[in-house]
Amino acid sequence: MEELTHFNEQGRARMVDVTAKAVTHRRAVAVGQVRMAPQTLACIRQGTLKKGDVLAVAQVAGIQAAKHTWELIPMCHPLPLTGIDITFSLSDEPCMVEIQAAVTCTGVTGVEMEALTAVTTAALTIYDMCKALQKDMEITNIHLREKSGGKSGDYRI
Fold it and tell me: Which helix (H) or strand (E) covers residue 112, if one does?
């Protein structure tokens, strides 16, 4: 396991200096799920929720979240993201919406946190828009599926 780099000589948090790192193409894909009752999923499919088109709003929320990750996670660097794609898969068994976020940039540090933040925020938005119908939805299984670029190389589950 690599040494943790987010601490200075005094053991205090710091933002890592990435000045000397090489610029490479970076890509990360994260996924997560919102599990729900069949009736809730049916309302999402049919577009009958009073708050509007759940997936359209969740998609915009996820994109905005990826762009603002550096403002939410204290040690993240602001990155010039070059692409954000959020997709949804609806499943009847198990009953859920699966969210996938793919984020890209050309830079000196990775976009894993941006992809994870996009998925998490999209899931929270789905919950928010559907909570009047169902309060016991479960946001689960948020994780990094793959990443490429940078010194640590490629990772894929």
Answer: helix 112-130
